[in-house]
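Researcher: I've been going back and forth with a colleague about how Phytase might be arranged in three dimensions. Neither of us has a model we trust, so I'd like an independent prediction. The organism is Pedobacter frigoris, in case that matters for your notes. Sequence below.
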Amino acid sequence: MNIKTYQLLTAAGLIFAACNGDKQTIVAADAIKPVVTTDTVLYDTDDPAIWINPTDSSKSLIIGTDKETDGGLYVYNLDGKMVNKVSNLKRPNNVDIAYGLKINGKKLDIAVTTERETNKIRIYSIPDMAPIDNGGIAVFDGETEKDPMGVALYTAADSSIYVIVGRKSGPVNQYLWQYKLSDNRSGGVKAEVVRKFGKYSGKKEIEAIAVDNELGFIYYSDETVGVHKYYADPAKGNNELALFAKERFASDHEGISIYKTGINTGYILVSNQQKNTFMVYPREGTATNPNEYKLLAEVPVSTIESDGSEVTNVNLGPRYPKGLFVAMSNGKVFHYYDWRDIKQKIDAAKK
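Model: Here is an independent structure prediction for Phytase. You can compare it with whatever you and your colleague have in mind.
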């Protein structure tokens, strides 16, 4: 990059950050800085999930995937230090968490990850990360296109827990499969298909999936196209409710995170991957249409090409009194952000 190009980028509010050796990636000069950068994984970070410790939120954990043939799940504390690990997984992609799955009469918190090369989901109890899936549960049985990638957990009002699984490629309809988890009566978990749903553009892939348990909606990123919205309850049908976030993305739509400010209010954050920003939309939609999502803000971050993200509004201690936002970044790490820094950018965009 020559001096003139650098000066033009600086004047436009942009700077360059090194990424992947000699490759250069543009990040905004006013990008938010992470409070913590985690210990590195061996291969390639992809997606995080946040587990809230029920007795002491300051001891909550971050679980992230290391996406490779000999990859794993890394468990971090709030200082970004690795405190546990699940090894020898066959390309784990995304991960999500649910609370209170009843097994053998005991309620367990669980982490579920997709294992792409075995066409399975893997299930572990939290915080010990002990497997409870008898070696994994096959998904997309009978399909020619499997290769599971995205995963999200939905906890219904009756405490039933469901897994929604996406894949690398597939049909233009019924792209996602939803499974109900239950006790297999031998100390583990079984999964039953309860529906197949979801449109797919066919342009790239669907990886990021998020569920709003309280409002009962599923959101997923159709890369280069937008974010689809469906009901999470299978009994409410398979009609698409919305397709939004269709504009102002550099290329891929990636990680989706939902920050809740009230019963119906909050923010939906979607990774604008190649631009190193997160696009923010109102969780509640507009005043007249809950399925209409207008862009509220574009938040620049120091995270490079983020695939996956997660957020919580729970007070996790002095560094995160209003919650924590976690995003995967190139460099084999995850970034932790103080929610107050993100909210400041959202508020500034409203003025």
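Researcher: What would you highlight for our discussion?
Model: I'd start with this: Residues 74 and 85 are 5 Å apart (CA to CA). After that, consider the following. Helices lie at 3-11, 339-350.
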